[in-house]
Amino acid sequence: METIRTQVGIIGAGPAGLTLALLLEKQGIQSVIIENRSREYVENRVRAGLLEYNTVEVFDNLGAAERLHQEGLVHHGCYISYNGKSQHIDFAKHTQKEVTIYGQQEVVKDLIKACSERGIDILFEAEATQIEGCESENPVIHFTYKGENLSIACDFVGGCDGFHGLGRKTLPKESYNEFKIEYPFSWLGILAHAVPSYEELIYAYHSNGFALASLRSEKISRLYLQVDNDDSVANWSDEKIWDELENRLGIQLNRGEIFEKSITPMRSFMIDNMQYGRLFLAGDAAHIVPPTGAKGLNLAVADVSALANGLIQFYQSSEQTLLDNYSRKCVARVWRVQDFSNFMTYLCHKQSDEGSFESLLQKSKFDYLTISEAYQKTIAENYVGFPFDTFN
Ligand code: APR
Ligand code: PHB
User: 344: Cβ below 6 Å to ligand 2?
Assistant: First the structure.
């Protein structure tokens, strides 16, 4: 059985694993990534597409943001609307910051390209099967690759393997508490060859349910509708989707060919410990947020920035304070983002009959939003993201 030797063994070539490998490489720390899907699969997996300014800064510092700056769209605000009445949230005014619209699969393509240019090995279609010796100084990742059983002997393991990965399953159950909410609604998302008829994102509450108008480029619209968890794309013809989007958003849309249509359930999930010995979890492996606010990728990048800092400190000075504090620091940010994502979800989705106490409280939040700069600022500062050194 062949053994590969490296400093940091990384499981998962999503945004977390790829960014971690590049941050380490920049400081001369070696890693190997194993990914159980094919390169084509991970490069084409459609997910959200909104980057906090922090996230863009990380990619900038890695020298992996050239295409992002060419093709990404910088947004200085968004709209939140209630039954057609719209409130602008001005990020520039309240935070002097902005966000960038750029699809996650484009981020993944750029990061994979940067890894290959810098000699970082990514083994695709390689599935981690066991992580051994986390409590020792020599953990080992066992994996299968082209029908063979292989292993990576390393100093540290980055569990960047997403919600269904092996990393979290390897943490002792008694080392963490688990928290979750399964929401009673899902998102029907579409991508369409249609010039967006709006300049900024619109989050819309409507008595029929939530709708979100987003985009991927000047020619591609990305839109979502709240649907029931047991709904199916077969129930939604293209025409019905466009009609319902226009109804809920209260605007006319440029209709174009819909080339992707899927339904995603919504959940909040987290554990309150992200490390065990020399195994460190990052990204979706440790937490999932509902997509309202598009925080998933941003949180993954914040995690691996903190992890890379800890590993760099360890290799440069043999000190371990940053690694020891990794989980505590990340979890503090995760709670903030969980709260914001949950807040945006409950604010904008239809949950109860109009006229009920809950729905009138929800409406009163919108009314408050239209009169309070403070409330707008609260949303703006969470939306653009807090600086990485906020949570210490
Ligand atoms: N062996 C190897 N690879 C694995 C294994 C395994 N046993 N289990 C999972 N993986 C891979 C998955 O195939 C996936 O490509 O780990 C990768 C994890 O990547 P992501 O799911 O993209 O998670 P992460 O990098 O944390 O990025 C978080 O992605 O899921 C979205 O919305 C989320 O935007 C957020 C971001
Ligand atoms: C997206 O463009 O996919 C998107 C944008 C904002 C969100 C969620 C998803 O809040």
Answer: no
Domain that holds residue 341: 2-75+98-178+268-348
Taking all residues of the chain, what is their mean pLDDT, rounded to a whole number?
Answer: 97
| Nearest ligand to the CA atom of 49 | 2
pLDDT at 392 over 90: no
Domain count of the chain?
Answer: 1
What is the value of pTM for the model shown?
A: 0.97
- List the CATH number of the domain containing 108: 3.50.50.60
- The pair of three-digit structure tokens given for residue 342, joined into one six-digit string: 């949950």
Which residues line the pocket of ligand 1, CB cutoff 6 A?
A: 11-17, 34-37, 42, 47-48, 104, 127-128, 160-162, 164-166, 283-285, 296-297, 300
Asked if the structure places residue 337 within a domain, the reply is yes
Q: For residue 339, what are its two tokens? A: 């709260």
Reported as a single tens digit per residue, the pLDDT across 244-284 is 999 999 999 999 999 999 999 999 999 999 999 999 999 99
Report residue 234 CA to chain centroid gap.
Answer: 27
Question: What spacing in Å lies between the alpha carbon of 93 and ligand 1's midpoint?
Answer: 35
Distance CA 20, CA 25 (A): 9
What dihedral angle (degrees, nearest 10) is formed by the CA atoms of 241, 245, 247, 253?
-110
292 Cβ inside 6 Å of ligand 2: yes
Domain assignment of residue 388, yes or no: no
Distance, in Å, from the CA atom of 285 to the CA atom of 270, rounded to the nearest integer, reads 9
Distance CA 16, CA 133 (A): 23
